[in-house]
From TrEMBL:
Protein name stated in the entry: D-malate dehydrogenase (decarboxylating)
Originating species: Planococcus salinus
Record Pfam families: Iso_dh
SUPFAM superfamilies xrefs: Isocitrate/Isopropylmalate dehydrogenase-like
Family: Belongs to the isocitrate and isopropylmalate dehydrogenases family.
Cofactors named for this entry: Mn(2+); Mg(2+)
GO molecular function list: D-malate dehydrogenase (decarboxylating) (NAD+) activity; magnesium ion binding; NAD binding
């Protein structure tokens, strides 16, 4: 029997509530399959931990996490702890420290999901975001602080290695899926980093003549995400642009309550991390109002990562069936169910399918 060792970092706000439902569903799937099981270890790290210790995680936290196959993260952030601390001292520390250089964000309009567009298009794209450097490299300087001549420098870092590997990964995904690949950059204004990005995209593309490609400036791409999202299938873009565009995509496909993300180390030299990306929502924490479907979608991504694609697809189909049924949904989806009730219903529907 395969054993998948999962580090749980429920984190802050609604994080523990949605992660509990994800664990419940994953355990039920393992029970129904019988060929694998999960071992979960919970870590108390996050903003509450920071308020008590002055640190977002243990000093040897990365060493502890390195022993696991994957990390399941709830949410990071809470009032009283500056966002740059909660982000850089936990989430980005893990992404960078474990070389999770691929961020996968599915932008797919499931049946039953709300869409703000007048006519519901067939939105089905995978955004592959560079996840280790670029605009989030943390390079720069703060000169003459608190003086009239104060200057702040924020430097984007685009290495040949970092740029080429994410672009090559995207070409491989497009080839395997038989889909088009679109690169999104801003080469007309960012005359070093994005011109380099465009150049590498073209260079790597010569090795994939079978993949149909397109390139857009990020401002034009933002417009087409709304006006004609069906033109995008596989998308590859930089850290910052990917961060922004995928939230726009989430708004078109049901909101952040349905937005899942995977931070992947493709070589599996380190654990990869799976998370709903809706944030900690402290205003509704503890009220059982949080939508767990994004956490369940990220659990589906985890199943895919472990080679359990059939179960990953079944879980995603069950999420879709739940929304089409439109009976057990949280308030953000105009329902009256609690977080736990949604998780219970997903388990019940999964079980019924197997039977």
């Amino acid at each position: 029997m395969d054993v998948y060792k999962i580090a749980l970092i429920p984190g802050d706000g609604v994080g523990p509530e949605v992660i509990d439902e994800g664990v419940k569903v994953l355990e039920k799937i393992a029970e129904m399959d019988g060929g694998f099981r999960f071992e979960f270890t919970r870590f108390p790290w996050g903003c509450e931990f920071y308020s008590e210790t002055g640190k977002m995680m243990d000093e040897d936290g990365m060493e502890q996490l390195s022993e696991f196959d994957a990390i399941y993260l709830g949410a990071v952030g809470f009032p009283g702890v500056p966002d740059h601390i909660s982000l850089w001292d936990l989430l980005l520390k893990i992404r960078k420290g474990f070389d999770q250089y691929i961020n996968l964000r599915p932008i797919k309009l499931l049946n039953g999901a709300p869409c703000p567009l007048t006519e519901k298009p067939d939105i089905d794209m995978l955004v592959i975001r560079e996840n280790s450097e670029g605009e989030y490299a943390g390079a720069g300087d703060w000169l003459f602080k608190d003086k009239p001549e104060e200057v702040v420098l924020q430097t984007g870092v685009f290495s040949r290695k970092g740029t080429e590997r994410v672009i090559r990964y995207a070409y491989e995904e497009a080839r395997a899926a038989g889909k088009t690949l679109t690169s999104i950059s801003k080469g007309n204004a960012l005359n070093y980093s994005m011109v380099f990005w465009d150049q590498v995209f073209e260079e790597v593309g010569k090795e994939y003549p079978d993949v149909k490609t397109a390139s857009y400036l990020v401002d034009a791409a933002s417009m087409f995400f709304v006006l004609d999202p069906t033109r995008f299938e596989i998308v590859v873009t930089s850290n910052l642009f990917g961060d922004i565009l995928t939230d726009l995509g989430a708004a078109l496909t049901g909101g952040l309550g349905l937005a899942a993300g995977a931070n992947i180390n493709p070589e599996k030299s380190y654990p990869s991390m799976f998370e709903p990306i809706h944030g900690s929502a402290p205003d509704i924490a503890g009220k059982e109002l949080a939508n767990p479907l994004a956490a369940l979608w990220s659990a589906s991504q985890m199943l895919d990562f472990f080679g359990q694609e059939d179960w990953g697809k079944r879980l995603l189909n069950t999420i879709e069936d739940l929304m089409v049924e439109n009976k057990v949904l949280t308030p953000d989806m105009k329902g009256q169910a609690t977080t736990k009730e949604v998780g219970d219903q997903v388990v019940e529907m999964l079980t019924a399918k197997v039977v």
